[in-house]
Amino acid sequence: MTTETTYQLENDGEIITEVTPLSECDFLYVVDRTKDNLSFPVHKHAEFEINFVENCAGARRVVGDSVETVGDFDLVIVGHGVEHGWEQNECKNNRIREITIQFPVDIFGNEMLRRTQMQEVKTLLENAAKGVSYPVGSIMKVYHLLEELLNAKSSFHQMMKLIEILHQMAIDPNGRILSSSKHAGTQTTVSNARLRKAQEYIAANYKGEVRLPYLAKMAGMSPSSFSRFFKLRTGRSISDYVIGIRLDAASRELVSTSTPIAEICFNSGFNNVSNFNRIFKKNKGYTPKEFREIYKRNKFLV
């Protein structure tokens, strides 16, 4: 178990890139540390990462375009290239515990991941491209496994325990995707042509009115059947999906331009500023103004 480490940081002009201590010959790198503050800046790296934080109530977690205030415990898995970090924010505790496990993208290889027994883990690693977080009840199921990994008698036993942790996270139904696909640098790929066609239409027309009957006609289905089909395949209703696309567009414009918020509201397909503010805060945890200020501070750090 490593208790202290030194990270190499590179600035690519946009966000800090962490060059982790994980060597080409290692299966994983783990560090367990207690710190008096959360000061490591928002960053990204080439590896997958599981991060557990304890005694962190009031801290702010950033994963892609997701910005949330967390409770006493936080558990997240992020994929390679996804910007992430934890900020002190309103956290008053000066004994914050953080367990970080990093492992390479090709840890299992395509041959292993295509096996039936690894399908849940494969899905988890795919979703990690947008960050996945877990509620307290789920964290408690993983907590003892983290301790067992830290206390494993060999690196081989650490490797086996990591697989067990990934499996537990993968089968937990309460894992929640954090970031929008566009901001995290991924594109959702759907084999079903009907769904892909509808998604492409929504992406091109989200600024206007997206009508269920038209989408259903494109798919050759009745509106009620297509509505059920869409929710089954995406996990969201069509209206929630469209709102997500609009919020993604608004988020990107908030952090990359100085365009007035009212103008961003209409640019992203909302037709009422008050409604836009309410929906944005409900989904992101912050008003558009607060969200922009948080990202300005993060970008200033780098």
Write structural notes for this entry.
- With about 300 residues, this protein is of the alpha+beta class.
- It is built from eleven helices and twelve strands.
- It has a six-stranded antiparallel sheet with strand order 3-10-5-8-11-12, covered by helices on one side. Strands 1-2-4 form a three-stranded mixed sheet, with no helix packed on it. A three-stranded antiparallel sheet has the order 7-6-9, with no helix packed on it.
- Strand 1 and strand 2 form a beta hairpin.
- The longest helix has 19 residues.
Task: Supply the number of helical segments.
Answer: 11
Strand and helix order: EEEEEEEEEEHHEHHEHHHHHHH
Helical amount among residues, as a percent range?
Answer: 40-55%
The coarse silhouette is globular
The computed structural class is alpha+beta
Strand content: 15-25%
The low-confidence parts are 1-7, 185-191
Assembly classification: single chain
Summarize model confidence as the mean pLDDT: 84
Topology, number of strands? 12
- Estimated radius of gyration: 20 Å
Q: What's the story with the biggest beta sheet?
A: 6 strands, antiparallel
**Euclidean distance between termini CA atoms:** 30 Å
Order of the strands making up the biggest sheet: 3-10-5-8-11-12
Task: Write a brief caption for the model.
The protein is an alpha+beta fold and 302 residues long. It is built from eleven helices and twelve strands.
